[in-house]
Amino acid sequence: MEQEKKNDKLLEVRDLKVSFFTPAGEVKAVNGISYDVNYDEVMGVVGESGSGKSVEAYSIIGLLQNPGKVVGGSITFEGQDMLSKTKDEMIAFRGKEVAMIFQNPMTCLNPVYTIGNQLVEALKAHDKNVSKEDAEKQAMKMLEEVGINNVEKRMKQYPHELSGGMRQRVMIAMGLICHPKLLIADEPTTALDVTIQAQILELMKKLQKQNHMGIIFITHNLGVVAEICDKVSVMYAGKMVEQGPVDDIFYNPGHPYTKGLLRSMPRVDAESYERLIPIEGSPVDMLNPPEGCPFAPRCEHAMKICLQQMPPYVEMGENHRAACWLRVQDCLEEAKKVDTQTENIEKTEVDNHE
């Protein structure tokens, strides 16, 4: 049983630490995060700007730029140690095994090459034996799969001739053309209107089921998470403050930051008008982070220990955990109740015996 469970894991990240060494000092952009992504699973990574979401994704595919550096932890993909791979090995690995869809398709597509040229080039880079004719056929088929019509015409067009939604579909096609096992989507719907956003999410769910991919979906939009993800990791100031199945995160959040994100998001199922409550304060200065919980300076429930010591993870359910001293307090109170009940039962049994 344990072996079967292990085989389900596509990606394993353990205690990953990434720092940027700047003239002002070391910025710990990612500070000891751990998670798994299984086959046929979509994991959402949620957090505000600067929380380290994209940095950890770039670390996985070896696109971390100077002065960024992985300073600790491990990244294992199907048993392969990703951090020990050479630059050439990572070039061969990217696209074929792991692909990434970036936030802004206009800056990622080359403006001087046609759409067809860029798709064919992406395919030929990982399959040296494919002919140009076959590559063009596969590119057109992939464009049709992502919902683009009149593909022969689109193949000859340049990025500026397409709408934002179509450019994003081209980026998805480019990411999937080599049939990767893991797709990293870095806020792929941010620049799109709501209607196109819904279409892109529906498309990604469909292609994920068809190709049995694992997906890491990076976003700050909890509405998108509810739509597409199976489980969620909530990031704040380089740390995973809460992880769990998507239903648990929405209906039983354990960390005040997660609750704050949910309160600041409009709900379509609300019975009456609800005022949105923003999270007070400013994000942490990553050059001088607090000693304890990074969210403590903004938390309305902060205690003295929150400012002094990082809380441990507390299990709140199956595969659901949160790093918060409030949850530690809950566990201690629960244990106290159990002890009291046990004492009462034992006392009752003694009295009955007498």
TrEMBL record:
InterPro entries: AAA+_ATPase, ABC_Ni/Peptide_Import, ABC_transporter-like_ATP-bd, ABC_transporter-like_CS, Oligopep_ABC_C, P-loop_NTPase. It holds the Pfam family oligo_HPY. It is a peripheral membrane protein. It is found in: Cell membrane. GO terms for cellular component: plasma membrane. Belongs to the ABC transporter superfamily. This is Peptide ABC transporter ATP-binding protein. It comes from Eubacterium ramulus.
